[in-house]
Amino acid sequence: MSESHEASLRDKQSLDMQTVEAAYARWAPVYDLLFAALLRPGRRAVASIASRTDSRILDAGVGTGLELPMFKRGTRVFGVDLSEPMLRRAADRTRRQRLIQVAGLARMDATRLAFADATFTCVVAPYMLTVVPDPEATLDELARVVRPGGEIILVNHVSSQDTALSALESWLGRYVASTLGWRPQFPWAVIGDWIEARADMRLIERRLVPPFGLFTLTRIERTAAFARSGPQPSGVGETIEHTAG
Q1: pTM, two decimal places
Q2: CB 117: neighbour CB atoms within 10 A?
Q3: What's the fold here for domain 16-157+186-241?
Q4: Cβ–Cβ < 8 Å for 43, 66
Q5: Is the peptide bond prior to 211 cis by the omega test (within 30 degrees of 0)?
Q6: Nearest alpha carbon to residue 228 among 128, 125, 121, 137
Q7: C-alpha R_g of the chain
Q8: How far is CA 151 from CA 132, 145, 201, in A?
Q9: Phi and psi at residue 232, in whole multiples of 5°?
Q10: Which of 34, 117, 137, 195 is most solvent-facing, going by the fewest CB within 10 Å?
Q11: Tens digits of per-residue pLDDT, 137-148?
């Protein structure tokens, strides 16, 4: 394991579920205003790829639902998020824009999803991995609910290789991650090492997306069933909104 990956694991101590919930309760009223334009290219890319299928899609970390209108109407999208204030805005968006592709919205912990194994053809997680306290456990859970032959599509910031910028990300991660609600420092090894450790996962695409190549889009195919030991996670969810898709 690389030193940068070890640093990322140590940084888990700066984020926990309560910290993330509190941060996004603060962000919810201004999130769209501050981040809609900045993060739109990545959201469009994720929704475009996922919409190639007319089947069931999980939008993990749906937030205020900025990407929900971008999914093709023939899809059935289920959105989950830990933050109830963010989900309320996603539900309002769904009603206002009559998004018939949205089959349901619910409050869930991404490491304990209330879905059966292999429920979805595609799971998208835009800008989420830098937010969750345990990225690897989250990836394990996303993999659990994807069907063999299906995809996990991620887009998030990956730490810069530039020494000065990397040092700034590390400083921010130590001192302001809990206030922001996400990690400024996020090495590619978190995702890359996870893929290598899983016999059922294959990297099929990795590319930078605008603006300025700040974010990385990653497509991972689930190639086969994965043998799990111990009890299956049951998940805990609270329905916020449900629409017939």
Answers
A1: 0.83
A2: 14
A3: Rossmann fold (3.40.50)
A4: yes
A5: yes
A6: 137
A7: 17
A8: 20, 10, 9
A9: -75, 140
A10: 34
A11: 999 999 999 999
Dihedral sign of CA atoms 8, 13, 16, 18 in order: negative
Task: Considering only residues 223 and 213, tell me which one the structure prediction assigns the higher pLDDT.
Answer: 223
What mean pLDDT value characterizes the chain? 83
Decide: residue 53, CB within 10 A, 0-12 exposed, 13-18 middle, 19+ buried. middle
Residue ranges covered by each domain of the chain: 16-157+186-241
For every residue of the chain, DSSP letters joined together read: --HHHHHHHHGGGG--HHHHHHHHHHHTTTHHHHHHHHHHHHHHHHHHHHTTSSSEEEEET-TT-TTGGGS-TTSEEEEEES-HHHHHHHHHHHHHTT-TTEEEEEEE-TTS-SS-TT-EEEEEEET-TTTSS-HHHHHHHHHHTEEEEEEEEEEEE---SSHHHHHHHHHHHHHTHHHHTS-S---THHHHHHHHH-TTEEEEEEEEESSTT-EEEEEEEE-S-----SPPP---EEEEE----
- In this prediction, residues 205-224 reach a mean pLDDT of 93
Say yes or no to pLDDT of 55 above 90. no
Cα 127 versus chain centre, distance? 6
* Tokens at 192, concatenated: 């890359």
In a 13 Å sphere around the CA of 230, the CA atoms on its Cβ side amount to 2
**Both tokens of residue 51?**
């919409």
Q: How far apart are the first and last CA of the chain?
A: 43
